[in-house]
Write a structure and sequence with these properties.
Helices cover about 40% and strands about 25% of the residues. The protein is an alpha+beta fold and about 425 residues long. The chain has a six-stranded antiparallel beta sheet, sandwiched between helices. A five-stranded parallel beta sheet has the order 2-1-3-4-5, with helices on both faces. A five-stranded antiparallel beta sheet has the order 13-12-16-15-14, with helices on both faces. A hairpin with a 5-residue loop joins β6 and β7. α1 crosses α5, α5 runs parallel beside α10 and α6 packs antiparallel against α10. The longest helix is centred in the last third of the chain and has 40 residues. The protein starts with a strand and ends with a helix. About 30% of the residues are buried.
């Protein structure tokens, strides 16, 4: 419907009735009606397939179809086009069923007049607009929900899914999630439908996304008519790809803007309130995944640091759980007991002392029993169950910082073979 012109498809096989309805519509004053008539269901379906129809006026009894099946086939063929049933039958049950199946109105021919037909058409079109909008919102919410439920362990892969959904649901030409890397370059962390020659890494100055990152608060950044803005000169993508509209949303981490989730268009686009609510939801999802990614990276950095410290200790370090299973060792232990690798997963007495049962002298056993540090000199065993030296074995309780409970033992081992030999000499 455009310029107050309503394009109507009247599916009616009775010429007198069709002429009567057309005559009424010509007399209507509140809208201009353009009517096309088809006298069979098949012809009606063929015309609907060509599009540009605002509403269907439908007689249920046709030469090639009878009853509510007629409505069902038309509605299935064009579910977003409103349908008014116009029939000679005064059948309340049929009317109720037609409404339940999606008809906007049910009119009896004997009761028709200019005002009733005109008003019913206008109201049906407006009601259908609301129905279509609600349907669109429902579809969008279902897609967002499906995206969230499909999240995997990799937060950046989840952000790529959100970026694609962002572009798709906003009907954009393409969509991007841009951030600054450690070198200060503007990088596209995720992309949707970008051109083959698009450069995903650029100097940031002049780019719209850079302004969103520098100046963005908590609101969407919308720029229309891009070709007549400063960005036509400063952002190389604007002219190159003939962009007309930009919608960007600042993504924050710890109250600092770290990126821009953006959709761009090669046409003028004015986002609706529903569009902006959708932008807020998806942007919130990106922020959550960014927080998770950065938290996980901080954990990994801490782990790498501890691993470096652990591996740099020249004496042996072995971590046991409460059942004497080895859960972690440093490089020194792996070097001393290379003949029993891998050590992790084995019992300490099996890996270090070639035994099938606990050792008689075991400071770790004392620690696990008392929760206190212990110390003993123990033999150092080599290949083929031979004693090759001696070791100082210090055992300390491993305490869970969150619960305060002991979860295992830390063994600190120093090779004292040379010292022992000197003492014996």
């Amino acid at each position: 419907m455009s310029d107050n012109i309503v394009r109507i498809l009247l599916v009616e096989d009775n010429k007198l009735d069709a002429d009567l309805i057309q005559g009424m519509l010509k007399e209507a004053k509140k809208a201009s009606f353009v009517v096309e008539v088809r006298d069979t269901l098949v012809k009606g379906l063929e015309r609907l397939a060509k599009g540009n129809i605002d509403i269907v006026l439908l007689e249920l009894t046709l030469p090639d179809s009878i009853g509510l099946d007629t409505f069902g086939r038309i509605h299935a063929h064009a579910p977003l086009v409103p349908i008014i049933v116009i029939t000679s039958s005064v059948d309340e049950n049929q009317a109720v069923t037609a409404f339940q199946k999606g008809a906007q109105e049910y009119l009896v021919k004997e009761e028709l007049n200019v005002e009733l037909v005109s008003r019913s058409i206008r109201y049906a079109i407006e009601r259908n607009k609301v129905r279509v909008e609600l349907h669109s919102v429902q579809e969008r919410l279902e897609k967002i929900n499906s995206c969230f439920l499909g999240f995997g362990e990799d937060p950046y892969e989840n952000i790529r899914c959100l970026t694609s959904l962002f572009g798709e649901l906003l009907g954009a030409t393409c969509a991007l999630y841009n951030c600054l890397d450690r070198d200060g370059m503007l990088c596209s962390m995720s992309q949707w439908q970008v051109p083959a020659d698009y450069k995903s890494k650029n100097k940031p100055e002049g780019h719209i996304c850079y302004d969103v990152i520098r100046e963005g608060g908590g609101e969407a950044f919308i720029v229309r008519d891009l070709q007549n803005t400063k960005y036509a000169e400063t952002d190389p993508n604007v002219k190159h790809y003939k962009l007309e509209t930009y919608i960007g949303y600042p993504i924050k981490w710890k109250d600092e803007v770290i990126g821009s989730l953006c959709a761009v268009y090669q046409k003028d686009f004015v986002p609706s309130e529903d569009d902006m609510r959708l932008v807020n939801v998806i942007a919130a999802g990106v922020e959550i995944e960014e927080r998770r990614a950065r938290a996980e990276e901080k954990v990994r950095e801490g782990e790498r640091f501890l691993s470096s410290v652990f591996s740099s200790i020249q004496d042996g370090v072995s971590i046991l759980d409460k059942d004497y299973n080895i859960v972690r060792v440093n490089l020194a232990m792996e070097k001393w007991y290379a003949h029993n690798m891998p050590l992790v997963g084995k019992k300490c007495y099996e890996a270090y002392h070639c035994r099938s049962a606990q050792c008689e002298i075991c400071p770790s056993r004392d620690t696990l029993k008392t929760g206190k540090a212990a110390y003993e000199v123990v033999p150092k065993m080599g290949p083929e169950e031979k004693k090759v030296g001696y070791m100082d074995l210090y055992s300390f309780p491993l305490i869970d910082a969150a619960t305060g409970k002991m979860t295992g033992a830390i063994e600190y081992v120093r090779d004292i073979t040379e010292r022992k030999r000197a003492e014996d000499d």
